[in-house]
Amino acid sequence: MKLLSTIPIVALVVMATYTSCKTPAEKVDKAEEKVIEANQNLEIATNDYLVDIEKYKIETANKIAANDKSIADIKVKVLSQKEDVRDKYVKRIEKLERKNTDLKKRMDDYKASGKENWEHFKLEFKSDMDDLGKSFQNVFINNVDV
After folding, report:
1. 58, CA 20 to 30 Å: which among 48, 74, 82, 118?
2. pLDDT of 61-93, one tens digit each?
3. CA quadruple 45, 48, 54, 60: dihedral positive or negative?
4. Cα separation, 76 vs 105, whole angstroms
5. Which residue from 55, 66, 49, 75 is spatially nearest to 129, judged by alpha carbons?
6. pLDDT of residue 52
7. What is the pTM of this model?
8. 74: closest CA among 134, 136, 143?
9. What pLDDT, on a 0 to 100 scale, did the predictor assign at position 144?
């Protein structure tokens, strides 16, 4: 009787062991599949990162173009000012133009060099763009340096 209850247990253990064992070829195939999948995931991540760069460059180009328009509008307003006041504003406008041009050049010169570097660059660049935006708002405030 004891033998009869032991046989199914032994058979179950043997079957479980047999089905869980993979041949070396099966293990290699599985490893190759994992490598292919990892490469595909890496390619997707790389493409997403490069797409993010291009989208940000387009957004930035639009903001810089808007800044150029704002500079032109400010120049028109300054022309109606008295000469002594106008000179002060002309210097502020030139400073804004330099900052805007420098930001455009920095973005145009950016070369993809890894996602981490991109995130750092983007964060720093956004801060500089925000500062420039504040400078535009403060151009006609007398006690604020642009």
Report:
1. 74
2. 999 999 999 999 988 988 888 888 888 888 899
3. negative
4. 26
5. 66
6. 92
7. 0.68
8. 136
9. 52
Give CA–CA dist 18/24, Å, rounded: 14
Residues 86, 75: Cα–Cα separation, whole Å = 9
Is residue 26 very low, low, confident or very high in pLDDT (cuts 50, 70, 90)? Answer: confident
In whole angstroms, what is the distance from residue 97 CA to residue 78 CA?
A: 15
pLDDT at 136: 85
The 3-state secondary structure of the chain reads CHHHHHHHHHHHHHHHHHHHCCCHHHHHHHHHHHHHHHHHHHHHHHHHHHHHHHHHHHHHHHHHHHHHHHHHHHHHHHHCCCHHHHHHHHHHHHHHHHHHHHHHHHHHHCCCCCHHHHHHHHHHHHHHHHHHHHHHHCCCCCCCCC
Q: At what angle do helices 24-79 and 115-137 cross, to 10 degrees?
A: 10
CA distances from 140 to 20, 102, 116, 145 (A): 77, 22, 38, 10
| Dist. CA 31–CA 25, nearest whole Å | 10
Contacts of 64 (CB under 8 A, 6+ apart): 100, 103, 104, 107
**Contacts for 74 with CB less than 8 Å, ≥ 6 apart:** 89, 93, 96, 136, 139
